[in-house]
Amino acid sequence: MKKLIIILTVVLGIQTAKGQQPFQGVPDHTPMMNESWEAINKLRYKVTQSNNETIYTPFFPNELKAIDNKLITLPGYLIPLNGGRDHETFMLSVLPIMQCMFCGQNDVPPMVEIFMKKGDRVRFTEAPIKVKGRVKLNVDTSRGNSEIQILDAELVD
């Protein structure tokens, strides 16, 4: 194992010294972070035990409470919750679905559950989209819904 690490270090060092990037060709998916995403990223959980079961209760700090029931615009990538091409409910992430949601540095990237306006649907795409809607902080996730939701959302350019 030590030999493998040494070889990789030498190869990457040589490529970098030659001006080559070791991961050329790998797409750079810059996160879609903005002030709203920064607030959403503040979500934390209170962890308790009850009857040998671990319970995670969402905790919304003041920065997050400040956007509750406010109209916001979020750029991001559509993460389907159901099969099909058109979606009226989906997750929106700062990273594309093709990029591992649990890889990289820090935590799992923030995601929100999007509920489009009645009758509106969004066609699946791997390209970034932008939605505008009203924030709802969801304390009771026992029905499987996300802690942070955007209601009556619409696509914006």
Question: Would you give an account of this structure?
Answer:
- It contains 3 helices and 9 strands.
- It has 157 residues and is α+β, with helices and mostly antiparallel strands.
- It has one domain (33-155): OB fold (Dihydrolipoamide Acetyltransferase, E2P) (Beta Barrel).
- The strands form 3 sheets. It has a 5-stranded mixed beta barrel with strand order 3-5-6-9-8. A two-stranded antiparallel sheet has the order 1-2.
- Strand 1 (44-50) and strand 2 form a beta hairpin.
- The radius of gyration is 20 Å and the shape is globular.
- The chain starts with a helix and ends with a strand.
- Mean pLDDT is 81; it is low at 3-18.
Which runs of at least 5 residues are low in confidence (pLDDT < 50)?
A: 3-18
Counted beta strands: 9
Taking all Cα atoms into account, the compactness measure Rg is 20 Å
Q: Strand count, sense and closure of the main sheet?
A: 5 strands, mixed, barrel
> Which architecture does the CATH hierarchy give at level 2?
Beta Barrel
Widest β-sheet, arrangement of strands = 3-5-6-9-8
Structural class by secondary-structure content: alpha+beta
What's the domain count?
Answer: 1
Query: What's the rounded overall pLDDT mean?
Result: 81
CATH topology: OB fold (Dihydrolipoamide Acetyltransferase, E2P)
Order of helices and strands: HHEEHEEEEEEE
